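EI: anyone free to look at a 296-residue chain?
SC: sure, send it
EI:
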Amino acid sequence: MTSEVHGIYIAALLTSLLAIVGFGTLIRKLDKPAAGWLLFAAVLICLPLQPLAFYFVRLPLDHWLAGHLSRTSPAYQWLVTLYAPLTEEPAKLLVLLIPAILRDVRPENFVRYALAIGLGFALGEMWFIAERVSHQPALAKLPFYQFGGYINERLMTCVFHSAFVAITLSRLRRRWWLGLGGAVLAHWAANFPLTLMAWNVGGLGRTTWEVIVGLWLAALFVGALAWFAYLILGQVLPLRWMYGIRHCPECSTDFEPSTLAINFGNERYERCPHCRKWLWTKRSTTTQIAPPNSPG
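SC: here you go
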């Protein structure tokens, strides 16, 4: 292996460690009963699923489709946008062929399994991409610290894959095909702006489309975090859990933290709903509110 290849692999290693530590800590600390060894097994089983889906399903599908349609035809161009969601979302569910895992996935713990499956699948994908990048001479010459875009994108993809799986698993025991369809649709919607950029829709140019795609991915990332906040805490914006019940120094009443506020350490500048004044508030020392339970 030449030194030019090392950059992307070092970046992949660092990204893997960050993802494993971050997701592993979250999976371990979530108060959702599940067999720890099965969660670990789910991660391991999902590691090769993305490359396998690519080589044994996606490539043969593309070869067959190209044999019946011209690669420049509108029909082919549109059908290609379905490759990733239609091959990857079902591939993630292969882990459920293990009877013990299928039995252990329940409404009260499917979030932990979604995170484990998404992590394993994303780890396999990040090394698959790293291997393909290593064969591109122009990119292979870059040192690892110049692959910041790769690192950020792959970490976000860990969240995206987990969120897509959570959509499927949320319906696992009742009309699972609706959950899978929702995951496929969400995955397609996440990728479609990249297709629009490749098509240069509107003649906006690559620079403009890169900004649009970046904003879209940021919005999608926030949406995925909100989805998990709802599944874990029962709130899209768990302000009570993050900031606690607030105490107004003016009228000495306690109130729910406001969405519109300025945060500065333990203090927040917000409007008290009782005296209707804007002021700096602190956490209440008399009211203790526990994080809400998962919606199940």
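EI: The two ends are 49 Å apart (CA to CA).
SC: 👍
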